[in-house]
Amino acid sequence: MESDIQATLEATAQLNRQMPTFLARVEEILGITNQTLASIEVRLARLEARLSE
Known about the structure:
Strand content: under 5%
Helix content: over 70%
Radius of gyration: 23 Å
């Protein structure tokens, strides 16, 4: 029982140490995703403009 609690505490501590790196990566991926979406929106706007000519 005590070893289970200790193992849980150690696992939690490890997750807490890894969380900043994980969140930074998620933030980076979200930034890339936003850039991709912005690029797609620009392309769609150009296509719409061509179609309406």
